[in-house]
UniProtKB/TrEMBL annotation, chains A, B:
It comes from the Bacteria. This is Aspartokinase. Pathway: Amino-acid biosynthesis; L-threonine biosynthesis; L-threonine from L-aspartate: step 1/5; Amino-acid biosynthesis; L-methionine biosynthesis via de novo pathway; L-homoserine from L-aspartate: step 1/3; Amino-acid biosynthesis; L-lysine biosynthesis via DAP pathway; (S)-tetrahydrodipicolinate from L-aspartate: step 1/4. It comes from Piscirickettsia litoralis. Residues 10-238 form the Aspartate/glutamate/uridylate kinase domain. InterPro entries: AceGlu_kinase-like_sf (IPR036393), ACT-like_dom_sf (IPR045865), ACT_Aspartokinase (IPR054352), AKii-LysC-BS (IPR041740), Asp/Glu/Uridylate_kinase (IPR001048), Asp_kin_monofn (IPR005260), Asp_kinase (IPR001341), Aspartate_kinase_CS (IPR018042). It catalyses: L-aspartate + ATP = 4-phospho-L-aspartate + ADP. Residues 355-412 form the Aspartokinase ACT domain.
């Protein structure tokens, strides 16, 4: 990627919380930017997160109040951390003789809708960025924050600074959006848990997005979605690694290379899963129930659907995050008491985990699903549910068996084997 | 004061750092405001400081960078604390069912000049406050911050939130500006050091301002100046004391009461003083030297001036804060080396303290000065310098004798005696 950049390239650089957790680290980052600036790369925008655990501290303050805090006040409190980082980063750059200017959301007119806590950016006035560049100034933008049409502060939700960076990159038609973080890039599985997990050098947007949704904490789904929509290459790299060493590049060039090919890219595990089994509902009742889940923000995943013909009723199982299971239980218990639900029944099972295989062209190749089931069966690991799509196959297993399941699947589907060999093994 | 207020009264309430140092305390304050609101007082504006030592923590971050930080970045970093307090206070009010809205400087167009770090407020758009009140909403304003004409963040310097409150009160033509703090009000001397120090129930603006300048940490000079200029009554009170109990009222009504009367109100002590004695300078050279002091921000105080006739040269002594003495020394040493300064000489004396008697009509009554000198002489305390004005008499004594000097002067000039008796004692 980096060899394609010129002095005229527009680069948005986002630095995450651990990267700016101390003044020393901020200074180190300033030195990196100064080197780039002095080498002639002057069209840089810096986006910063809050220092280390600062946002958590601020969230803690809001939680210490008696009741849940209102969304507008919440946004005002939790967005303060990025302001501090922006001021410090601009100051550090100036100390290295690089002209720099800190910007808050309202100063760049980072306009969002009014969904406090998870607002979406609608527009950014990039003329101020251009003005900075014309004067040789590096703009340093406080991430995570925006303003709505009333001029009220909003925040962009989890991974908000990544979203700020990607959106700025989109509006600037940037050549690169760098996500500088505390790991070298995106891995094929969690390297702390899975032996042989390896750094993924390139990813296409769709796979990267799926990995982000499934909880890879490195990239955030919206950042990837914006990158995909505006075709902005995204690099995930270690803030303090040597220049142009290891990193993950997310761009649109990958897909072409493995067109019509099955490509298993990575594995992810979520150990906080419950399974809900519902029986004795009509289709209409089922639809009403799921509508209620949506309304309280429950994310229903891995749905398996079975029609019991003679009763004209449906049996459905689905997985939910343990964070949501109490909401689900409340709704189910309330439903059961209503007239017309006499034959309705439900079971919730706990201590489950969701292991997901992520890649491209997975639906077209049922051999991968077969291989997955075979691998787990050989290890005597029961699969409670399974669902697959073009980009992922997710299965529910016992929580205590998740790590070994992940290791086995990584060994079989990713590590050191070409996809062709995997497929052959299944076919034989 | 409080019995004069009606439901239509406009009140600006400022809460200081120790008052909002925890979420619990913020909640307590919200409950106070809620009681007032429910009793019908709805034209309230709340101004908040940063929580506890938060601004110090932020200043510490700026100081941790290698070199002094640029002023604009500094302001962006150190103003973040008030934003957090404003959000939390608005949230706490809402939890008590009081409609509230947090405001940052740019949202109220608190416009200042561009003197980062000690900007002066030029204007505030109070229409947003009126709009809030029309809807029954309490505005909660982040103190200490402003924006300049370029839209850049500025801060108002030491005591900045008091300045925000007083200026808002001025623009709103408020009936009262409350400074809610961690002491019951302004005392006749530091109650931790001087026995018999008492709460001053009323003060006129001039005396209050002089006390603020001389280092009473409760009120800040600019806040008092704004109050005086726009004739806004200021109340200093303990945030968590019972309503309408003890407090200090600063207003213009006091002066009338003691017109033509000597009124010794309080004593203050500054233990970080050096005395500088200059000899062998022409008037022109002296003026140039003082001009240099001004340029580097040295505050020269208590000047005593002696003309040595035969030489057409002047001897001058003055006191400076120990914080400034190094700057003074540097300038004096550099000056001594210049041509035309061969007979110039200087001495700097350390370990001194400045004890000041503050009151009204002091110049008219030299008896107070006489009493002061007599009291100190009887206790064998040498007075190194003395200067007096309408509102204060300051004298330099040895640092080690400052506390006893203060106690003796408090006993003689303030405690339990009418001014008349003091004067008689001197006259006899």
């Amino acid at each position: 990627m980096y060899h394609q950049l010129s002095k005229q390239s527009v680069i948005v650089q986002k630095y995450g919380g651990t990267s700016v957790e101390s003044v020393e680290k901020i200074h180190k980052i300033a030195q990196r930017i100064a080197r780039q600036y002095q080498s002639g790369m002057k069209k840089i925008v810096v986006v910063v997160s809050a220092m280390g655990k600062e946002t958590n501290r601020l969230v803690g303050l809001t939680e210490a109040l008696n009741d849940p805090i209102d969304a507008a006040s919440y946004d005002m409190v939790v967005s303060a951390g990025e302001q501090v980082s922006a001021g410090l980063m601009a100051a550090a750059l100036k100390q290295d003789n690089i002209p720099a200017k800190p910007f808050l959301a309202h100063q760049l007119a980072i306009c969002t809708d009014s969904t406090h806590g998870s607002a979406q950016i609608k527009s950014i006035n990039i003329s101020k960025i251009s003005e900075c560049w014309q004067q040789g100034i590096i703009p340093v933008v406080a991430g995570f924050q925006g303003i709505d049409t009333l001029g009220e502060l909003t925040t962009l939700g989890r991974g908000g600074s990544d979203t700020t960076a990607a959106t700025l990159a989109a509006f600037l038609n940037a050549d690169l959006c760098e996500i500088n973080t505390d790991v070298e890039g995106v891995y094929s599985a969690d390297p702390n848990r899975v032996k042989g997990a390896r750094l993924l050098k390139v990813l296409d947007y769709q796979v990267a997005r799926e990995m982000a949704i499934l909880g890879s904490r490195v990239l955030h789904p919206r950042c990837v979605e914006i990158g995909a929509k505006y075709n902005i290459p995204i690099v995930v790299r270690d803030t303090f690694s040597q220049e142009q060493r290891d990193y993950t590049l997310v761009h649109s060039g990958v897909k072409q290379a493995c067109k019509n090919n099955v490509q298993v890219t990575s594995l992810s595990v979520d150990k906080n899963i419950a399974r809900v089994v519902l029986a004795g509902l009509t289709s209409k009742q089922m639809a009403e129930l799921f509508d209620q889940f949506v309304k309280v923000g429950v994310n229903v995943d891995v749905i398996v659907h079975e029609r019991v013909e003679e009763e004209e009723r449906t049996q459905v199982s689905f997985s939910v995050s343990m964070l949501d299971q109490l909401k689900v239980l409340t709704i189910l218990e309330r439903t059961k008491l209503q007239p017309g639900y006499s034959v309705f029944n439900f079971v919730i099972e706990y201590e489950l985990a969701k292991v997901s295989v992520i890649g491209s062209g997975l639906l077209a190749q049922s051999a991968i699903t077969a291989q997955l089931l075979q691998t787990l069966e050989q290890a005597d690991i029961e699969v409670y549910m399974l669902s697959s799509s073009e980009v992922k196959i997710s299965c529910l297993v016992l929580k205590e068996e998740a790590t070994i399941a992940c290791q086995l699947l990584h060994d079989d589907l990713i590590k050191g084997r070409s996809n062709k060999r995997v497929i052959r093994a299944v076919a034989s």
